[in-house]
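For the sake of transparency, this paper describes our internal protein records without simplification. Such a record has a labelled line for the sequence and another for the backbone structure tokens. Nothing more is needed to write down the fold, since each code stands for a local backbone conformation. For reference, a complete record is included directly beneath this paragraph.
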Amino acid sequence: MPKPIIDFPVFDADNHMYETTDAFTKFLPPEYSGLIKYVEVNGRTKIAVRNVISEYIPNPTFNVVGRPGASEELFKHGNPDGKTRREIIGDPIRSPEAFFSPAPRLALMDELGLDRALMWPTLASLLEERLADDPIATHIVVHALNEWMHEHWTFNYEGRIFASPVITLPIVDKAIEELEWVAERGAKLILIRPAPVPGYRGYRSFALPEFDPFWQRVTELDITVGMHASDDGLTRYYNQWEGNFGGEHLPFAGRMSAFMDIAHTQGRGIFDTVASLIGHGLLSRFPTLRILPVENGAAWVRPLIEAMGRSYAHEPSLYDEDPLMVLKRNIWIHPFHEEDPRGLIDLVGVDRVVFGSDYPHIEGMSEPLSYVDELEGLPHEDIAKVMGGNLADIMKMPFAA
């Protein structure tokens, strides 16, 4: 069968910036100076949050990183030879300016064949979990990051790069204030951590009615809601099984236990998030919300559909409407390159599947356009939808295939 022809715009749902070392600190108010620090530990630079050193990202300066797609073969074909993480990743590279700034990134996107891309922060995913017991500080540092992002990347760079500001939700009024601030500056989407929201009364889902004023404003502003994989706090749960007390989430620290690996591959965080969005009725109260889980894969989709189907069949009175219909109406899904996007299309429909490369992360794709090979055999129109048209639709942008 001939390879698919790419004669349509390609819109990548999952590109990443690497934050500069002033991203969290440049716009911090003076009274919060020192909340985030870069410190030297045994000759290596580490990030510290409230004077607690984090190993979450091995090199938070990103001056040297693994090459893009270094783990691509691992995820696609496994590790039959039992290679170490170092053997798989290989020699690191020095980060080009295109990983840090929008103008050179556009030139790189041209080389890669990407017309447009959503641009997610990388290091930002550690913030909310490590500040969970201080809602005010969380809002302040997130706003400082968004100020830096707007200054450094903008939220809409030449109609091609769409950086995603973070919205944190512990204090609803402050979340609305931040939402309006980024919207006034051209944000086309926002990033909300797919995890329970910490607050003064403990943790709770953002799909509960107390957050409805925020979601009402999201619908009024007609902004896409991205839910990129983050440190979602599940490590606290895993630690109870592992006997690790107080250990932090270390996604790049090397081999984990078999239990952790099994649990991680199930997509528990995004499964619970979408189950809450539907099961707590948020997407029925606000049926026009557009939710885009990114870099969460698709392994969670079939188990969730099966669980919702059983629940709805046994207790339909728990629901305002058919939960599968809600999923297909409100959720767009980004399957990993090593998964089966055609199988996902059979499950949820071609209009709800989007392409994302995770470039330039090691887990992603070295050549983003090679994703089209996973769609071989589909009608050309459907391939164009997955590779760009569906994302243009959720972002309310024109698309000419």
Observations:
- The chain has a mean pLDDT of 92.
- The chain has 15 helices and eleven strands.
- The first strand starts at residue 11 and ends at 16.
